[in-house]
Write a structure and sequence with these properties.
This protein has about 260 residues and is an alpha/beta fold. The chain contains eight helices and nine strands. About 35% of the residues lie in helices and about 20% in strands. α1 links the parallel β1 and β2. The radius of gyration is 17 Å and the shape is globular.
Length: about 260
Amino acid sequence: MILDSLKVSIITVCYNSAATVAHTLRSVAGQTYPNIEHLIIDGASKDETLAVIEANNHRVARLVSEPDRGIYDAMNKGIGLATGDIVGFINSDDFYASDHAIADVAKVFEDSATDACYGDLQYVRQTDIGSVVRYWRSSQFVPGSFSRGWVPPHPTFFARRSIYERLGFFDLRFPIAADMELMARFLEVHRIQARYLPQVLVKMRLGGTTNSTWRNVLQQNREIWEAMKMHALNPSLPRFVVGKLLSRGGQFLARTS
């Protein structure tokens, strides 16, 4: 298969993101990979987000702006509109670590047996994107990993559109942890063929919804726990807590690439 024949649909969900979305759009527009479909799903923003998108729409294939039922509902809309062979997400305050990130991802999918891939992520400061605060270095999936608190960084997760069509979209019963539930469903329950790409694909500004308050952190972990029980992954609370703490601590220790 010729590499450029694989279309990559990139979905950006946003709401009142005027301060950061231009950087995200430029990040996608600057990718060297030519066959990209960039979909913007806006939740009827009240600020200047739409104006910023219109001024930076060089590679935007489609813009939808309407009320939604939360971030995962908006992501599901994006998947439903996507026409690419591969689907990935880049949040409206995130950006790709290099201009060849999507080309590197597409190369992994040259192997027709590969269903999904993911890589590493760096957290950077809101006001200084050159300052790395945490380095989320992932690893190759091993069965049972999710029960031990392991999860790949969702902004680096790409899957074939056919996988979503076969195994389902984001479950809206999990308002904060639907990304984790989906990846656990794909990898642990259905054992799709996922490849780890050991490089930083995405940089994320600190201050996202999940980590904005301790209440959200606790809710996310409760949802993860419920998702694991729903999928009969037999979680052990001590093992899960220790695994999460070790993983989070390691992210702060590994702050350089």
